User: What shape does this take?
Amino acid sequence: MLPHPTARLRFRQMTMADLDAMSLMLGDPDVMTYYPSPKTRDEATAWIEWTQANYVRHGYGLWIVETHDGDFVGDCGVTWQQVNGRPELEVGYHVRRELQGRGYASEAALACLEFARDVVGVGLLVAIVHPDNAASRRVAERLGMRHLEDDLGGSVVRTVMGVELG
Assistant: This one.
């Protein structure tokens, strides 16, 4: 199960063949500014393994996002996350640094919102955003999300944006 292609993008399942591209993106300090630190190659491997486990467990997860020509853009998808101790379906997105600011994250995230509504059937979709990450917050707002609450469960307070899908 995949989100529908968009005007500029298509989705496919993530595999270990994506390790080089994912490792470069997740290891980029600019892309990972609002994470505790950029990810190592081993951590990128674990990211792919976690994603593949989500495909098996749920039938969906994060997907590779690429142009219709097959150029790697980043990853985007829906995963179950803990928000103040309860599970919520989150849309997550990362775009290669040199492609940021072109609307790819918003375009991919909208396709994932439609997938969450039409295929998964959830009533609420969230985005968990670092409070200082204005660009990620703008993507969430373009999806119709508004601030719902702050997640206090980790070492950093995270902003939880959300939109009702029902």
User: Anything to note?
Assistant: Residues 34 and 155 are 13 Å apart (CA to CA).
